[in-house]
Structure formats: structure tokens, C-alpha cells
Amino acid sequence: MSRLRYRSRALLGALAMLLLSLVGPPMWMRNTAPVSPAEYEEAAAAYEASLPDCGNCTVETYLRESWDFSDVVHIGIAPWMLILAVLVLMLVMVYVGSDFSSGVITTQLTFTPNRMRLLVGRVLVSGLLGAILMGIAVLASSALSIVWFVALNGYASLPVGSGLLGVMGASLLLGLIVGILGALLVFLFHGAAVAMSLVAAILVGTTLFEILAIDSTLPPHWLYHLIPTRHAESLVVGMSRRSYDQYPLGSTTALTPEESLLFFVGLIVLGAVLAAVVFHRRDIKN
């Protein structure tokens, strides 16, 4: 823990996560406010104007839907944690990669020749750092959302089973996962630059894949189960709302949190084996 406490990069990363986590709630909390008289008047005017063309419309058709706290958790906080998880992954890779670029790894190998011990230690610390950063993010976003929601709707409007604890626990788990994977990628590619480029390429590639997959004649459905971002979403949202299902591209096979957890465990095992082999054979120089 002392390594995390006294490294300025980790502290700056924690501060960045705290600030960014507070940016999210203002984007969705305005949807939780009760409908105001002015909004009702606007909806009524729109309803009157639409009568010639929409005989089945009502005033409520033109009113915005006010979110309850479960909507805040599943539509607001959970997707925001997925976005911040990408940032956590990048921060961890910069954190670990700076040790390669600065020669710290070379110095440590001078005093601790056991490379596997160094690899395991860095990976575990990186996983802990990822969990801490995601913990900061989910706690700050959740606290601000709760205070904001109560201020607008009162304590009685907070439900017992909103799924918030599930999102918080899954976010911590996702932070641990991306921290470990980020460190393994840096050790595998001997620095953060190539690792970060690979992650960016995967994100862009999977996004394009899903856009093109709107045409159901394109890819086989099982490819959907190989998209890391979808597994992250299934893990975070699915652990808080058990009825949540993602049906890939019209397939009848849904992603589940259990499948997603196994997917990430498999990635970690594969990355650990490859990183161990490459790091053991690589000639480390300043």
C-alpha cells in the first residue's frame, strides 16, 4: 500500500477519477425532477397542436418521463462506470508503463532478479489500484446521485431494492479486472504505448462491428460473445438487475454475469501466461 500512497501518479489518477465521477450525475439527474407546471403547460400546448394529426395522443404523450432511483442506477450510474472503467484501464497502463520508460523495472531486476515475482507483484498492485480508482468513482457518483435525488423527491422516494449495491460491487470487481489486464498488457508489450494502441483499436473495432451488425446478414452471433465491452456491461448491469439480458444480434442466447466473469478470467489467464513467457525471455534495458 505504501507504493500506492506515495506515488504521485496514483494520487493524480485518484483525483482525476474523483473529478470525472462528479461530472456524470448532472447529465442524468435532471431527469429525476418532478414534472413542473411549466413543462405541463408546454405539453398541453403541444397536445392541442397535434389534435388534427394524432387523435390517440394525450397530454402525457408530450411529457418527459421522470426517472425513479432504479432508473438512476441502471441508466445513469452503471453506464457511467463502464465509461470510467476505460479510463481506469488507461491510467493503470500509464502507471505501469512509466516504470518501463523510466528504468525502474531495470533497477528492480538488479536487486530482485526473480522476474516472475516482480510480474506478480506489479499485476496484483495494479489490480488493487484499478479497484480503488473504480471504488472512488462509483462512491462519488452514487453519493452525489443520492443527495440530488433526495433533494428533489424526498427520502421516501428511495427504494429498498434499487440495485445500487450490485452496481457498486460489480464496479469494484471490474476495476480489479481492468487493472490486472492493463498491467499484463504493458508487461506483454514492454510499455504502455503499444498496449494503449491495442486497446484503442479493440474499442474502435468492436464499435464498428456492432454498427455493421445491425444488418443481421453480416456476422455470426457468437462473435458478440467475444466483445469485452459487452461483457463489462453484462457484468455491471447484470449483477444489479438479475432480469437484465443482452441478446446478441437477435440470437436467443443471452450474455449473463456468470459468463462475463468467466470470459474475463479466461482473458486474465491467457494474458498472464503470455506476459510471463515474454517478460521472462525479454532483455530489459533502460
Number of domain modules: 2
- By DSSP, the count of extended strands is 0
Largest sheet: none
Number of helices in the DSSP assignment: 11
- Structural Rg: 23 Å
Global structural class = mainly alpha
Mean pLDDT, nearest integer?
Answer: 80
The share of residues in extended strands comes to under 5%
Question: What is the N-to-C succession of helices and strands?
Answer: HHHHHHHHHHH
Distance N to C terminus: 26 Å
Query: What sort of overall outline do the alpha carbons produce when their principal axes are compared?
Result: elongated
Low-confidence stretches: 242-252
Helix content: over 70%
Word description of this protein:
With 286 residues, the chain is mostly helical. It folds into 2 domains: 2-29 and 68-281; 33-66, no CATH class. The protein has 11 helices and no strands. The chain has helices at 2-6, 8-21, 25-28, 37-50, 69-102, 104-111, 115-153, 164-189, 192-212, 228-238, 257-281. Helix 5 packs antiparallel against helix 7 (115-153), helix 5 packs across helix 10 and helix 7 packs antiparallel against helix 8 (164-189). The longest helix is centred in the middle third of the chain and has 39 residues, at 115-153. It is elongated, with a radius of gyration of 23 Å. The two termini are 26 Å apart. 31% of the residues are buried. Residues 242-252 have low confidence and may be disordered.
